[in-house]
Amino acid sequence: MLELIFFVLTSFAAGLSGALVPGPMLTVTISDSLKKGYLAGPMVVSGHIIAEIVLIILIIGGLRWLIDSPMAALVIGVLGGFVLMFMGYNLFKTDPDSYEPEEELKSNHSSIADGIITSISNPYFFIWWATIGFAFMFKGLEIAGIVGLLGFLVGHWSADLSWYSMVSFFTSKGSRIMNKHSYTWIMRICGVFLVALGLYFITSVTILK
Prior knowledge:
84% helix
């Protein structure tokens, strides 16, 4: 029992170390939180979890070799890079007149979609799950079978949810005292960051190829 608890805490720490690294999901969480409020973070993470569940099913189904293949990394990196650049472009040209800090949008479906898109467009998402994630899954099964696997997922997803919920909460609170000029510049910075990440993904996988 103690070993299982320690394993869950280790999974949380590993998940948190990954969540703290700036990336497309963090950028989208910030931009969505400014527009939709504090629920945007949990919704983005929900989309991320959906993508991870599908990937876990593929790994368990024996397709780890395909996910971890150089060709898959190339295709995902190039296509994902262009998707991130497109998302970044849309953020950069955000109309400042659309900024309404007092009105939280009720629909969070687009934030869930953003969580899915920023996950599957990131080649390192697949690499992490085909290597580190697979090792954690195997260790969890070794410790306590399906309970160990679920323990890993609970720890991992709790890390994502706690961090991005906190980011979303403080970002949305900051939007209450933000003017349109500040909002526009934050959106442009987020947009440039996503474009830069997209270019990085494309160049890194093509160079490795």
